[in-house]
Fold this protein.
Amino acid sequence: MVALARLLLLCLLLPACAPDVTPSAQAKTADPPSPEAKPSSTPSAAASAAPAPADVTGPLRVSTDAGVVPAARATRVLHVGDSMAPLVGNYLRPLYTRDGRNYWVETVVSSSTLEWAGKRLLQDAMYKYDPEVVLISLGSNELFDPKPERRGGAVRQIVEDTRGRPCLWIGPPLWKKDTGFIQVLKDNLGHCRYFDSSKLDLPRMEDGRHPSWTGGYRWADAVWRTLGGTESVPTGSPLPKP
């Protein structure tokens, strides 16, 4: 017992037996970022791995000061994408703006996921509008890429640029079989929910690709229901068929 007591006393006196408390071993707390600080336009390393899949049960929802509500009740909605975006957005905008809420549409004609990710276009729009909900209409211009897997990282970057906000990716309205892009898109959506536009019967314009006025109305109505909307979608002009 005497020998054990001496050993314990010796251990307490020697630095080698004590925990390492040098500055390099201590936990370092980073200073919080400035509220005005804007992330780098360089694609984030976090976008290299696909995040967890979204919950697809029930309508898309958003947390507000009034609690968790359907996205149809959000006060700030941002809709981004290619030329397909206005075909839905022009019908949905009046549903939000008629009672003072905001619905912004930012489009780049003939754009792709590579362009939106490379130029960080959504990141810029997020800081401009600070939306509660993000709708994305991208993919129609890359359906027939022979190497669609190269677009996975771009999809992940765009999803990351939503900053975790509730997100609905409105899939392209297929007019013929794609070369694998849709599966790449679905595999990399993370927390964003996928809206399968290919299941809808959408009359087309003369180009055979873009939905007509009637097709746009049907498309917008289906998206509105996914957002939890219950009111009738305004028909706009000219009057679409029901």
User: Anything to note?
Assistant: The chain has one domain: 50-226. DSSP finds seven helices and seven strands in the chain. The domain at 50-226 is CATH 3.40.50.1110 (Rossmann fold).
